[in-house]
Specification:
alpha/beta, Alpha-Beta Plaits, 2 domains, six-stranded mixed sheet, four-stranded antiparallel sheet, 37% helix, globular, binds adenosine-5'-triphosphate
Length: 328
Amino acid sequence: MIVLEGVSKRYRVLEPGRGLGGFVRSLVKPRYREITALDNISLTVPQGQVVGYIGPNGAGKSTTIKIIAGIVRPSAGRVVVAGRDPFRQRTAHQLELGVVMGHRTRLFWDLPVLESLRYHAKVYRLSQSGLDQRIGAMARQFGIEGLLSQPVRQLSLGQRVRCDLALAFLHHPRVLLLDEPTIGLDFDSKALLRSAIRQVASDLQTTVILTSHDLDDVEALSDRIVLLDEGRVLYDGTLRQLRAQHGVLPELRLRLEAGADQVRAWLEGLGGVREVYTHDGWVCVAHEGGGAPAAVLARLLPQTPVREMTTHEPSIEEVLRRVYRGAR
Ligand SMILES: Nc1ncnc2c1ncn2[C@@H]1O[C@H](COP(=O)(O)OP(=O)(O)OP(=O)(O)O)[C@@H](O)[C@H]1O
C-alpha cells in the first residue's frame, strides 16, 4: 500500500544573472527562485493495484516516483510505502521495491543474463535454496529461458527489457515503479510485455506505479489512472469514469435504410443513449455502454434494415486532450 498525504515538493534553483556582470553578481550574492513540483498531493494505492500516473512534461511525475522510491524528501506531507517512511527507512524500503526504466538497464552489459539475476538475488538477500526455481519461474513468465546464458550486449531491445522485468520482479517487490516500460518496442513485443507484466503483478500482488507517455500501455495495464498537471492531481479514478465525465462516450455507428430523421427521436428516448447525430451518412449513437447497443439494435431491426454497423471507442488521447483543454 502507498499513502501520500498532502505531499508537496519545492525545489530552490539559482537564478542566473544576465550577462557576465550578472553572472559575477550571482556568485557574490546568489538569488534563488522556488519551483513547486508537487502541490499538496494525496493518494492512497491499495496493495496489488496498478496505477497509471500520467501528465504532460514537467507535471511532477518523476518527482512523485522519486519520493515513493525514497530518493527525494518531500518539502511537506506524509509518505508511507508498505508501512515505511521511504526516505527515513531507505535501506529496508529498497529491499521491497522494484524499478524498471525502459531506457536504462540494471543488467551487466558484458555478462550473461543469469549472472545479473544471481547478483541481484544476493543484493536483495534472497536465500540460495530455491533460487534456481525462482529464476526459472521468472524466466518462464517473461519468456527469457533461452536468453539466460547470453551476454546482455547481444540482446535485442525487446529481449533486454524482458530480462530487466524478470530481474525487477525476482525479489517479489511489494511496489514496482515502471517508467516507460515498452519504449522503442514493436507492436507485438509491447502486447507480450504488457500481458506478462499484468500476470506477474497480479500473481505477486505487486502495487505498480506506471508512468508512460504511451497511453496504450496505460490503458492496457492500469486499474486506475491519476492525471497530474502542474504538480496537482487533476483526476483520480478509472478511465471509464473519466470518459463518461468528459462526455467522450463510445458510439454505435449505423447505416440504415430509413433516414436518420425518422429514427432519431425514438433512439434518443432509449435508456443509456446520450446523443444521436449524423456524420458522413452514418447515424451515430453515443451511449453509456452496458446494454445500450443491444437495446438500440432490438429497437431498430423491426423498423428498418441495418445495412452496415460499426462501433467507435474514443481513444484515451481524445479523452485526455479534452481533460487538459478543460483545465486550462
Ligand atoms: N532537481 C530539481 N531541481 C529543480 N527543479 C526540478 C528538479 N527536478 C524537477 N524539477 C522541476 O519540477 C517540475 C516537475 O518535474 P518532474 O521531473 O517531476 O516532471 P515530469 O512530470 O516527470 O516531467 P517529464 O514527463 O518531462 O519527465 C519541473 O518544473 C522541473 O523542472
